Amino acid sequence: MVDCTSEGVLFIEADADTTLENLGDSIQPMCPCYEELLYDVPGSGGILGSPLILIQVTRLRCGGFIFALRLNHTMSDGPGLVQFLNAISEMGQGLSVPSLLPIWQRELLNARNPPRITRIHHEYEEVTNTKGTLMAMDENNLVHRSFFFGLKEIRALRNRLPASLGACSTFEVLIAYVWRCRTIAFAVDPDEVVRISCLINMRGKRGFDLPPGYYGNAFVYPASITKAGMLCKNPLEYAIRLLKKAKAEMSQEYIKSVADLMVIKGRPSFTQPGNYLISDLTHAGFGEVDFGWGKPVYGGVARALSNISFCMRFRNSKGEEGNVIPICLPPPVMERFEQELKRMTKEAEPVRLIKSML
């Protein structure tokens, strides 16, 4: 529910004495000047009693600009945010109303009456760190880095896969690769259960005829699980098969079961120990938003979180097209992670580290 008080949103204008060329690849996560490009207005970051959106536009010396935004995630997901940005674009260029009208209708995803959990939801299981190796991280001691995967790196990974595996998306290949390397880097006990949760958009799924313009959160993140030893000792195809299996189990009944679980268990958080969440934003449309000056050089998230990453399209300073994935890890784990990445792509150029900061 939203209390429409007509107070608007927070909007900040700023100027920076630099150019887009000077920024180079640092405009993608993890941008070292993040705090300057999106000022955290005191008291604005809450869920309740706070503005729904914080926007900052920073003009650059070259004539370009950086549009940064912070969203109250209870309002919208990625596709919903892109819809909002496109509406700003259209109205800023003269339309009186956006071409795609916003639809509220949150009741479309309500739980059933009575609610009933009919599927297994590994993403919400209560887990105890029994052996003390399930990737515990201190938020104050993390290294933030982004990794660029171009055509050469992706080709090197695909060359490791057997023909019997069938067709695989680039996202499946990359995420299986990153999950495996990340688990090896943490040196998790072989008998510990690890999991990866990939966000899946409900839009377009049979049985959920969400109307065009629905901008609320419409995703679930089913978890693939396995013992760490199995993930680390098996080839890359093992992890890919786990991802495919979880994706294949996605159905109308699964989604309804998630909604019912939220009611029965009181909106639990996703599993924390040993879980790695990742969202595919390569098709979300952030790179297509045009405010009248053309498409952005980069459109996507500004940073990753301790156990959450995003996969986004990116063109680096050399003009190469590919995907970028920001990752946060403790310093010694990050070092081992990079070594494992290079080992698995030794047939081609090593995965390119774009930017890092403590």
TrEMBL record:
GO MF: transferase activity
Lineage: superkingdom: Eukaryota
Record InterPro entries: CAT-like_dom_sf, Plant_acyltransferase
Signal peptide per UniProt: none
Keywords: Transferase
Pfam families registered for this protein in UniProt: Transferase
Family listed: Belongs to the plant acyltransferase family.
Record-given protein name: Methanol O-anthraniloyltransferase
Lineage, opening ranks: Eukaryota, Viridiplantae, Streptophyta, Embryophyta, Tracheophyta
